[in-house]
Amino acid sequence: MAEWLTHVILAYALFTAAGWYIEWLDRKWVAVGMVGSILPDLNRLDLLIGADQITALLGIPFDWGGLHTLGGAVVLSAIGAVLFATRTQQYRAFSLLFAGALSHLIVDLPQKYADGLMVTNQYLFPLPPWRVPTPGWYVSADRWVVIVSLAIALPVFVADYYRRQQVAEP
Amino acid sequence: MKTTRRVAVVGLLVVVGVSLCVASAGADLWAYPGPDDIAADPGPHDGQQVLAFVEVQSVEDETVVVIWGSNPTVELAVEEAPSDLRERLQPGAAIQVYGQLESDSTVLVADEVVVDYHGTADRLYTYGISILGGVIAAGVFLWYWQINWRKLQFEPRGGR
Prior knowledge:
The complex is a heterodimer. By secondary structure, chain A is mainly alpha-helical. Chain A has one domain (4-168). Chain A has 7 helices and no strands. In chain A, helix 1 (4-19) crosses helix 5. In chain B, 38% of the residues lie in helices and 32% in strands. In chain B, strands 1-2-3-5-4 form a 5-stranded mixed β-barrel. In chain B, a hairpin with a 3-residue loop joins strand 1 and strand 2. The interface between A and B is large, with 59 and 61 residues.
């Protein structure tokens, strides 16, 4: 998986650009989408509480990897959305958290795998496992990935700045 | 939404999330045998292709000794890894090996090897920059939203 900074920067670019066309999608909602972009990596809770410990506690197999999936994105986005105050905010929060989480899974897809296939079999869970060839663009530790994400986000940041300047002018 | 109802809905969704993790652990998502299968009965897997996510223990002349899995673990001698790649590997490196099992599943003849982390520096970079990303996401979120602890909900900050 790509590191979180790349996910957050790309989510900023994606939702800021989307905000040019969706009236209610202002900066506070872009922030919600940025949080959504790291939700699937809550499977990293494994570093704090190992799956083996939970398996021993529950008495049945447990895998944090269930969160780094399409199903996990839906559940985590729903949990986040419930924490917003009004029904409208909850709908918007779910949409952005889920879109952010989906962007995370999509960005993670074209990584290098030794058998030449994407791990869509994991990401699509609980849908049936299915794997397609990966272009093998990067591994997590590749430094250039975050530079590419910055190169994508910078023009969006500049364009957004000038759009706001134009709106602010009388 | 009332606070009690919110807590109940979150609790229910957490149960759904845990169920998803349990179902994921029990699901057969891979076409290849895993370390559990091989540890239980190594012999029958000779000749089978596997995709192994492993940690390097040591690098010898022509062989890379790796550990696969966490509980149980399987020790494998990876053969035919490219020499230029072998020379750069350090103990603790995380690699993927796609290849064929041999010799009672003690040898993995590599068709392809991918290095995820060469060593400590790669891990420090990935975790460090991830923490930075998490702090930025949390910081931007809390700039625009505040937590109402009494109602257990997020509310927009005024004027932002």
